Amino acid sequence: MRNGSYLFTSESVAEGHPDKVCDRISDAIVDTFIAHEPHARVAVETMATTNRVVLAGEVRGPKEVNSDLLEQVVRHAIKEIGYEQAGFHWNALTVENYIHEQSADIALGVDALGNKDEGAGDQGIMFGFACRETEDLMPAPIHFAHGILRSLAEARHSGAEPGLGPDAKSQVTLEYTDGQPHRATSIVVSTQHSPELDQDEVREIVRPHVINVLPDGWMCDEEDFYVNPTGRFVIGGPAGDCGLTGRKIIVDTYGGAAPHGGGAFSGKDPTKVDRSAAYAARYLAKNVVAAGLAERCTLQLSYAIGVAKPLSVYVDTHGTGQVEENGIARALRDCMDLSPRGIREHLGLNRPIYARTAAYGHFGRAPDPDGGFSWERLDLVERLKAAYGA
Q1: Cβ(381)–Cβ(293) under 8 Å?
Q2: What kind and span of H or E run contains 94?
Q3: Any idea of the CA torsion for 114, 115, 121, 122, to the nearest 10 degrees?
Q4: Which of these, 130, 161, 189, 358, has the minimum number of CB atoms within 10 Å of its CB?
Q5: Which positions ≥6 away from 363 have C-beta within 8 Å?
Q6: pTM assigned to the model
Q7: What is the pLDDT of residues 286-309, one digit of tens each?
C-alpha cells in the first residue's frame, strides 16, 4: 500500500466456497495426522465437485490414520461447514483417496541426520506483513471483507438466518486519503440462499452484517452496495463449481495489499516452510509494528530445500521506519531461530491447530489458548523495544 489518495479492493470467500471446502478438508487431515503423531509429514490436496471428494498427496505418519479414518474426517469437515444439499451432502458423497507414502528422496533432504539439522521442506520465498490500519495490524480491506462473511456465517450456524447457504463471497473497496482508509466506496456480497428468498430479501439480510462490521460512517452509497448482482444464488458450493486446495492464497494472507510467496498453506504440515515460514514472517512483521519501529512492515524470508537456515531476511518499512531496516533484520534474527525446527518450536506448530485457519484468513486472528494462531502473539515487542532503547 502506498501514500496518497487512491482506492484499494480486497475480497474474501466463506468457509462454504468450493476452494475453502477443500482447504478445510486438507487442513483437517493435517490435524488428524499431527494429533496421532506430532512430527508426521503431510502434503495433501483435495478436489471437490458434485457429491464427490478426491484426495491426493504424500504422507509419513502412523498406520492408524488409514483410509477409513480419513473418510470420516472428510465427512465431518463438510458436515461442520453445513452442506446437506442434493448436489453436495456430507453423508451422500463419494470419497476417493489417492494419498501415498512420502518420497524417500524428500525425506533424505529434510530430516535431521547426524550433525545435520532439519532442512526446509522445499525452496521458496515467504512474506509477512503488518500495518496500523486496524487493531489487529492488518490491511483494512481484507479485514472487513473477512468480517462480513464471518458475521453471516455466525448467523447461519446459530439459526438466526436459516435462509442463507454456506457458499458466499465478499469484496470491499476502500478510499484512502494520505495513505489511510476512511470509507468504503463499494461493497459486494454474494451469498447462497434458499429458493424462497428473492434478491431484495437477501439484500436486507446482508445489510446489517455489513454495517455492523464497518466503522461508523464508512458504509458506501446505496447504489454501490451490490448483493447477489446476478439476482439468484441457490446452487452453490462444489455442486456449482469445482473446488481445489490452495486456490485462494491472497484471501488467506493480506488481500493483495502485500506480496505473497509462491506456495499455499493448507494441507501442509509445519515442516513445509510455505506455511511455517510465512507464519514466522507475519509474526515478526507484526511485532516490529507493535513495538513502534515502523507503521508498516514487509518481511521476506527465503529457503533452499534441505538447508536449515534462511538464505535471506529482508525488511522493508515503506519509509515509515524509526530505525534502519538492516538493523531490524539483525534484531529479528537474534529474537528467533528461523530454521524450520526453530520456527516450529518457537511458535508451537506441531499441534492440531490448522483446520481453524482454513477460512477467514490465517492472519489477523486472536491467539487461541491451545496454541492456535500463535504467530499473532506480540511477545517480542518488549525485546525489540529494548534492542533500540525504546
Answers
A1: no
A2: strand 94-101
A3: -130
A4: 161
A5: 138, 253, 254, 282, 375, 376
A6: 0.95
A7: 999 999 999 999 999 999 988 889
